[in-house]
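Handout, section 4.2: multi-component inputs.
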Amino acid sequence: MNNKEYQFGWRSWLPKDWNSNMQDKVAYWMISGVLGLVAIFTSFYTVEPDEQAVILRFGRYASTEESGLHFKIPFWVDSAIKVKTKLILQQEFGFRSLSSEGQRTAYSTQSFDEESLMVTGDLNVADVEWTVQFQISDPQKYLFRAKNPIATLRDISHAVTRRVVGDRLVTDVLTVGRAEISSEATQLLQETMDKYDIGIRIVAVKLQDVNPPEPVKPSFNEVNSAKQEQEQLINQAEKIYNQVIPEAKGTAAKMISEAEGYATSVENRAKGDSEKLDAIIKEYRKAPEVTRRRLYIEAMQDVLGKVQNLTVVDEDLKGVLPVYDSGKGNVVPVDSSAVKK
Amino acid sequence: MNNNKELIKFSFTTLLVFILAMGAGYTIKEGEQVVITLFGKPVRMVKEAGLHWKWPFVETVRIIDLRMLNWDGYPNQIPTRDKKYITVDTTARWKIIDPLKFIQTVQSQQGAQSRLDAILDATTRDVISSHNLVEAVRNSNAIFDVVSKRAEMKEAEEGQATLEEEVVGDIEKVEIGRENLSKIILDRASKELMPIGIELIDVQIRRIMYEASVQKKVYSRMISERERIAEKIRSIGRGEQAKIEGKTSREVQEIQSLAYRTSQKIKGDAEAKSIAIYARVLNQDPAFYEFTRKLEAYRTSIGPDTRIIMGSGSKFFDVMTNGK
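Output:
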């Protein structure tokens, strides 16, 4: 009769031939067993090497635990929230990497112009992509001081990077200003995070691709190619200069050397001639009359000996001379004084 | 039978205690605060995290966020004072500092959100449209240092090839600056948010971009600027080329003429010397020189084809005619 009330309860699963005492015992053990299991499974937790765990007791902060196996008060009195504090986390702006598996990181082809286009100080537009690397330096603050710390970080990073870029010329942003922008943005971002005190430490703000906006790119490339052209033109001119000048110098040196050679030869000739004459005159003076005559006769012999057309006219035959041959050969007017004699 | 009744009694008591405990105890998590209401009327606030007690059933717990919250504005199209149409995207961080006022005036975070939208959008619009575009873009006048440094550098290398690009675009002076604009928005909006128990921590201009139609114009301006610069660079290149060509030709002329001059001088000196030498020797006996020189001249100038008619009385033939 006693057992009748329990016919429909859980005890109906138990063998019918057990007495109620035994059934109570089993019930006791089953309940405590289940409770025990729950207690065991809610009383420990493991913290990975890159994590820290924040322990809450009835929702109130109790402690922060390092990696390893830890015990806590079971039945959800204590709860552990694990935070990856050792890991350097990264947020991307203006682009998204899809996966870094394999050799090469795959990037989303979708464009994030909204994120990356910014106005520069000279009111031009630059397309700046950057990343922010950060660490959770204080898990307690990170978890409980801001509702959405990552969104906060993203918002501030946008504002700060634009502020830094906004104080620069577009050409600086695209070329020489990268390092400066990075370090200034890092500093400003850290300052703001410190002000909020949300347990985030900025490791680095790194500029990735910095480009002119897509429609403007060709004209920027044109400037670059113009620079190349400029250099090319200058190089060409320099090349011609380098070709021409040494040659001209060589030619000049040659000209001077030739002149010097000529000078030497003129001088030496003059000296030779004068020495010769000196010698001749010295001897000539000893017997001037005879020498003169001899020289004259020798010369005339040489001259007239060569001449094929010599006419000697008797001076007594007046009116005949001279007869000129207009055909060929040179006509030398004969010294008329000599003729008259 | 007895045993059974006791068991039922026991389970009832346990259940009752459990329900009472559930109704009386509540936990506040870190980052939360609560307002306890008695039949809907707020009676006290609790900010401490942990396990707390209240009267079961009659008192209700309303959880209010204690953390810093984000407000994300919808990008607004606003004309600036200098009539430039831009899209301004602002964000703000806020906190509920007076939970009582908060639940009385806006009820929930959703309610607060729409209030923040209204106030911040309006303030942002007011502030941006009453300032020039540069005030929202730049934070300081540091850019002028860069520009003047550039100009100095350019002056320093006057006469050389200017490979650097010049600064383009209009650069106006900034009087207030980006940070201060944010601050103005913050101050104005803060005043309006105070009565609803909200503290505005900061307002940031997250993004400023030209509106699509303006952006096109800006792009075409940038393109024309670049083209201008490219053309200038090319023309500088051509100029440099011409300069070098000119220099080349000048130096060649210099070198050639100098060499000519030097060589002529050398030749002249030599000839002068030779004249002096000849003169010195010939002065010893000018008549003899003339005589011998003439003879030499006859030798060289009279060739075999020359026709000569001579009188028989000439010195050369006198023996032939006289027989003496």
